[in-house]
Amino acid sequence: MASPFDIEEIYPDDGEHSLRLPRRQAGNSPQGVAVTLLADYSVRTRAAFPSAAIVALLAESGVTTAGARTAISRLARRGVLEGSRQGRHSSYRLSRAAAANLSAGAQWILTSTAATTPWDRCWTTVAFSLPQDRGAQRRTLRGQLRWLGYAPLYDGLWISPYELTPPARELLAQLSAGRVTVFRGRQTALDTTSQRAPIEAWDIDAIKRHYEEFLRRWEPMLPLVRSGQVEGSAAVRARTEVMDTFRRFPTLDPQLPLELLPAGWLRQPARQLFAAVYDDLAEPAERHVRAVVARFTASGEPGIQAHTTADLVAGSRGDASPGEACRDGPTR
């Protein structure tokens, strides 16, 4: 089974822009930290940050000055950041495409872990075939299918417990004619031990371990957060880390039906813990970000705002309407 962390992009292109957000790496890359940091305090306002302030904030997360400046430059070339200059001083903000992309991603992260969509025991099966010389296209397709909630039951055969969504339909429509077939239906049980259950396309034990690791990491910090003992740069670092970690869960566990999962599944406890840490750190983290920005600009930046989980969900388009035979799952 391919690791879900092999997905090339944090969020895929939306089909209308050439925007490419930074690739995932083992650990937190400078570009990834920069995107998370700017999104946490400006995804709705697109506030501009002096480049020196971005460098200073990234330094608090262990990014060198050279690494921070390289990350900013590369993000600007990718179209993730827009730059402006006044005299010798430069500032950057999220581009309109990046802000829309990240906002949609944040809504998906929070809504897809908030509740379980009713399931009617239907499975969507996507079978595709690409020539060996199209390895890059195959890797991209697999990564985007993973992001859309699919997993490989066999090589070239991907499944989801939910209806084919419009984004998935558009993705598959880009393949050459005769390269893809989509089915929707129920599994037929066989009286044999060689049968593989569709849920086995996901490594349930591994997903459970990721949830357990998340809870072990953040539960001890929650009392400190709630008592106001996490402030300043520590609040910003913790908030960035908890978002960067939690946002991977909807790909690991794309609203898998609870009836197929072990009792006491940890999706909701993890989401509740994430929301408590992220929201309770919003005020002290925002104060610190504002203080750092104020060191590099006389006027300050009124648009800096630490978004809460409620803010990020507010723009959600809601669940898709159910189909006639099978209910739709998450819209991505």
From TrEMBL:
InterPro entries: PaaX-like_central, PaaX-like_N, PaaX_C, WH-like_DNA-bd_sf. Coiled coil: none annotated. Pfam families: PaaX, PaaX_C, PaaX_M. Residues 202-290 form the Transcriptional repressor PaaX-like C-terminal domain. Residues 117-194 form the Transcriptional repressor PaaX-like central Cas2-like domain. Residues 31-96 form the Transcriptional repressor PaaX-like N-terminal domain. It comes from the Bacteria. Signal peptide: none annotated. PANTHER family: PHENYLACETIC ACID REGULATOR-RELATED TRANSCRIPTIONAL REPRESSOR, TRANSCRIPTIONAL REPRESSOR PAAX. This is PaaX family transcriptional regulator. It comes from Micromonospora parastrephiae.
